[in-house]
Every structure is written in structure tokens, then in C-alpha cells.
Amino acid sequence: MLRFAGRHVPKLLAVLAGLLYALAFRFLFNTGPFERFGGLLMVSFLVVVPFGLGILTAHYTSASRGSAWRYAFAPWISTTLFVLTAFITQLEGAICLIIILPLFFVVSCLGGQLYAFLERRRKNKPDDYVLVSAVALLPFVVAFAESRFATPDSIRRVENVVTIAAPPAVVWQHIVWVPPITPADLGPSLVDDIGFPRPVEATLTHEGVGGVRHATFERGVEFIETVDEWIPERKLSFSIKPNTATIPPTTFDEHVIVGGRFFDVLRGTYELQPLPNGHTRLVLYSQQRLSTNLNPYAGLWTDYVMSEIQRRIMQVVKRRCEAPATASAISSL
């Protein structure tokens, strides 16, 4: 047993080196000047740190291990341990950890591959002190360069379309005021599993421009939607503001707060297009602001989440609009 355990000590030390490296920079980037310039959403943390994790893990993994283990699997194990540690100790919420996990996997593997390339060129392992110093300094160097530039804003549009077997007059009634939605109405979705609240209902103070919709979600999340375009049975458009007074601080991770520093939902629009067969083509699109130094990657996730939320709401509207027609068709048989 001791012999078996002894054989695995070098592997354990290798993955622990990567784990401790990532944890150390997680704390550093969440405080002081780093946090002011974007913190854990800086490229220097999201890209450079997992890159260094991959290099360190590969360096301390025994050369007797196969190349696949040393330069890919070992960095992945370090990454997985980092994510699990952050989740168990509640350093980060599940939403953020799921978002960064694929990026950390890819970049840590690239770090391992770069180390393999450097090692082959040198024909031996680099000096421990030199390597560790270089890897430790790299995030600071990149962070300094990154802090010299303003965080870019990206305005993104997400659109969903559904065809409903009902005329625009019926569909219109179901979008200006959305009665309570149950979890069974929505069905299962990954966005629920990673912690996003489900939509509950939408009310309207009065019809026409200036009317205010209150779109509520689970766990106290509410959006105030002020109508600025009202064309009955054709178009409903509104600005969106999160009601921060009703949203508990524990509902969202600080990095994905709607209306916060990094992400906001700005507008929503329904368009109803009548079809020749009496059906309606319903289009729902929204605009979001994304403000990170890694907007292309973060946008993949925000686009998916917004699209999934909109898709589920539209499916509820579709079923409700088609229910009377379905019942009538059945009774006529």
C-alpha cells in the first residue's frame, strides 16, 4: 500500500502546484487594483493564469508519464481541482465556474503543450527557479498592460422566432400581459441547473406608450420595462431596467449581476408578423451590454442564456395561444 501511494506522490504534487498557483492568483485578482480593472474577468486571470497552471503542472509531472497525461490530463486535473475547491469553499458561484471551466481546460492544455515544445528544444527540464519565477510574473505583466486600456463595451442582440397557430390578435393578448408561469410550463433547461432564476409573470400598468411592464423571475428578480413603442397586434418594444431593490445579493454571482458592471439587459422587442394561413410569426429580440476584456468568449454564454430564456417564454406563449384552437378542433371531431 505504501509503495502504491509512493508512486502517486509526484503526480499529486504536480497537480497541487497548479492548484495552489491558480488559487493564489484568484485571491490576488479579486482584491486591490486588480479588482478595479476587472478582477477575475481580466484576460490576465482568465487566460494567463490557466496557461501558467498548465505549464507548472506539466513541469512537475514525472517525465515517466505518457505525453498525453503530462501535457493534457494533468493540467485538466489541476483545473478541475481548482474549480471544485472554489465551489466547495464558495469562492465563486456555480454560474461563473461553469462559464470559465471550458476556457481553463483549453488554455491549461495549451500551456502544457508549450512546455512540451520548450522542453524538447532544450532537451531537458528548465530550471525550477527560473520557470516558476517567469510563470508567476507573467500574469502581473499582462495585467499591467491590460490596465492601460479601457474595458470595451459590446452591444449584443439575441433573437428568437416561433410560428404560432393563432392570429396576431390572440398572440398580442398573451405578450402584453403574461399570466403566472409554473416550472412545469417551462420544462427543464440547463440555465435552471446552473442557477438562473425562472421567469414567473409579466404585468402591465396600462396599455400604450408609457405603460410599465413588471417582469418578475424567481428569487426576487424583477425587471421594470417601460413601453416606448406600441403598435397593437404588430409591435411591442420597451426599455429594461433591473429593479435592484428587490434582487437579493445572493441571487446572482457578482460577475453576472444584471445591471452591474459587466452585464446589463437594455431592451426587449416583440414583433408580430401575420402569415397567409392565419398564423403568426412571433419575433422576440433583446439587446444586452457586455463589458469585459474577453467579450467574444463571454458573449457566447450570455447569448446562450438570453436565447434560452426567450425561447422558453415564447414556447409558453405559443402553447397558450394554440390551446383554444386545439380544444376547438378536438371538440369538432
Automatic annotation (TrEMBL):
Xref: SUPFAM superfamilies: Bet v1-like (SSF55961)
InterPro entries per UniProt: START-like_dom_sf
Keywords noted in UniProt: Membrane, Transmembrane, Transmembrane helix
Domain of life of the native organism: Bacteria
Keyword Zinc among UniProt keywords: no
Positions of transmembrane segments: 12-31, 37-56, 68-88, 94-117, 129-145
Protein name: Polyketide cyclase
Organism: Solirubrum puertoriconensis
